[in-house]
Amino acid sequence: MAILDKFKPQQAAYTAMKTTGRDPFSVCFDEVVTPSEAVLKGRRIILLGTNNYLGLTFDRECIQDAVAAVRQAGTGTTGSRIANGTYGDHAQLERRLAAFYGCRSAMVFSTGYQANLGILSTVAGRGDTILIDADSHASIYDGCRLGGAEVIRFRHNDPDDLHRRLRRLGDAPGNRLIVVEGIYSMLGDTAPLTEIAAVKREWGASLLVDEAHSLGVLGETGRGLTEEAGVMDDVDFIVGTFSKSLGAVGGFCVSNLPDFDVLRVVCRPYMFTASLPSAVIASVTRALAHVHERPELRERLSRNAHRLYRGLAAEGFVLGPRVSPIVSIRLPSSEVAIAFWNALLDAGIYLNLALPPATPDNAPLLRSSVSAAHSDDQIDAALEAMVGIGRSLGVIAAPARRARDDQRAGVRLGEATWGQPGHGPARVAVTGS
Amino acid sequence: MRTMSQKDEIVAVIIEMIGALPQPPAQRATPETNIARDLGLDSLAVMNLVMQLEDRFDVSMPMDRLAEVQTIDDLAVTIADLQGG
Ligand SMILES: Cc1ncc(COP(=O)(O)O)c(C=O)c1O
C-alpha cells in the first residue's frame, strides 16, 4: 500500500465533486478589488464568504501603517518571539490588546489556529480535564490533542450537559477547563455564555472563550460575546484571531491571570515558530483602534446581517437560530448544495460551501459571511440570486405556493422539520441538542 | 471490581440502542461488531450514540479512551471501567 493510499475515500469524493462543477476548494480570484468584490475569470463577483466582517482589508489607514512598517522594519522577523522575533511593535500590540479587553496580559501568536494550539495544549496538562463544546473548531480539537489533558465533549450549547459532566468528574484531582466559542462559525449561533459562566462558577472550573468570529462584531465596544453577555469577570482566557474582523493574519490570547506571562517560555506553538511581520502587526494595531473608535462599522455590519437574514427567512430558507454576520442556509443534500453553490458563482456571488462531516448535524450548508463593507445593493443582489436559484432547485417554494404553505418564514434550524425520504417529516435538532 | 455480567449487560444495552436508531443497521450488532466500520454510521451518528450511552450509564468518555474503542465489546469494557473507577 502506497503511503497516501489511506486517503483514497477522500480522493474519490473530491474528484466526484470536481466533476459536477468547479472545485470549491480551489477557487482562484484573478484579483480581489475591494473587501466585497473580486474578479473571477474576468467577471466581477460579490464576495459574501470571506469573514471580512468590518471590511478593513483595504482600509486606507491600515494599509498606510503596514506600508510604513514594512519600509521601516523590513519584510519579516525571521525568527520566533523568544529567539529574535520580538520587536517593539509586537509588545505594543500586546499592551493595546490587554487594554482593549481590560485584562492584565496579552500574548500574540502567528495565527488564531496556533493561539488555540498553544493555549489549550499548555494551560491544561496531564491530570487536568478540558471540556469542549462538541461543535468546536478544528483548532480547539487539535490544541486538545497536542496537550496531555483528558478531553471530554459536551453537547453543543448545552450548559446542563456540561454541568452533568462536571458532576461526573466528582472530586477527581486536576483542574477543569471549559472551552466555548463566541459565535460558532458554521451556523452563526452563539454560546449561552451566562449559563455556562454560572456552571463554571459552581464547579470552580476555568473558562476559555474563542472569540474568533465575534471580536469586533458583538458587545458594546466590540470585545465579543463575553462583553455582550456581561461575563468578563468569569472568563479566564479569551482567544481570538486577526484574520477575520481585523483583516490580516495572526492570533492572540488575553488573560487576567497574574502568572500568564510564564506561557512565553513554556508554550511551544508560541516559542517555535516565527513571529508576525511588522507590517501585519501595524495594520492589526490600526484595525483594533478602528474597532474601538468606529462603532458605526459594527452598526453597519448588524444592519447588513439583518437585511440578508430577514430576506432569506422571509422566503422560507432554513437558517441558523440567530441573526449574525454568519448567515447559513441549510440544504437537503450535498448534491443540491453543490449545484446551488455553482449556480451562485455563475450569478456572480461567492460564498462558502460547507459539506458534511465538517458541519453541525451533518447538514450541507451554504455559508455567507456579511461585511460592513457590503452595500444594500450588494446584499439585495445576493438575495435575489439566492431566491431565484432556491426556487429553481426546489429548495424553497415559489411565491404562490408559499402563500398556501402557511408561515414557514423564519423557520429556525433548531426547530426545523424536514421531509426525509422514507421517513416522513422528522424533527431535526441543532447538533447535539 | 468489574464483573463479566456487568459488561455483558452494557453490551446488551448498546446493541438495543443501536437497534433503536433512526436508521438501524441491516444486521443485528454483536459484541464483535466494529462500530465505525460495520454499522454504516457516520462520525456524527457515532458521537450521538456515545452521548446517549454516556447519559444512560452516567459516565463521560474521554476522547483518548474513545479513540481506542473499535468493537461494541471494547466500548462496553470502557464504560464498565469508567463506572467502576
Ligand atoms: C472558532 C475559530 N477559532 C480559530 C480559528 C483560526 O483562526 P486563524 O484563521 O487565524 O488561524 C478560526 C478560523 O478559522 C475559527 O473559526
TrEMBL record, chain A:
Residues 45-385 form the Aminotransferase class I/classII large domain. The keyword Transferase applies. Gene3D superfamilies: Aspartate Aminotransferase, domain 1 (3.90.1150.10), Type I PLP-dependent aspartate aminotransferase-like (Major domain) (3.40.640.10). InterPro entries: Aminotrans_II_pyridoxalP_BS, Aminotransferase_I/II_large, AON_synthase_class-II, PyrdxlP-dep_Trfase, PyrdxlP-dep_Trfase_major, PyrdxlP-dep_Trfase_small. The keyword Transferase applies. This is Pyridoxal phosphate-dependent aminotransferase family protein. It comes from the Bacteria. Its cofactor is pyridoxal 5'-phosphate. GO terms for molecular function: pyridoxal phosphate binding; transaminase activity. It comes from Roseospira marina. Keywords: Aminotransferase, Pyridoxal phosphate, Transferase. Belongs to the class-II pyridoxal-phosphate-dependent aminotransferase family.
